[in-house]
Request: fold
Amino acid sequence: MSDTAQQIAERAIATHGAAAAARLYRESEAAHYSEAQWCDSASDERRKLQLAEGYGRIAAIIEQLTGKA
Reply:
């Protein structure tokens, strides 16, 4: 069974601290959005966009949990 976004966010906060965890996930989100622009196939582009959205959701949860929203 895979972890929920909330569990991943909580583990990231515990591991990296709130500010660093949010920054890491926001940077990953931005990187995947950027990479999606250069994909040769629609399926690769969709996969990158889905990853970016996932990183964004986790970053938002981190910000919500730590009052940074």
User: Anything to note?
Assistant: The CA atoms of residues 11 and 17 lie 9 Å apart. The chain has three helices and no strands. The mean pLDDT is 92.
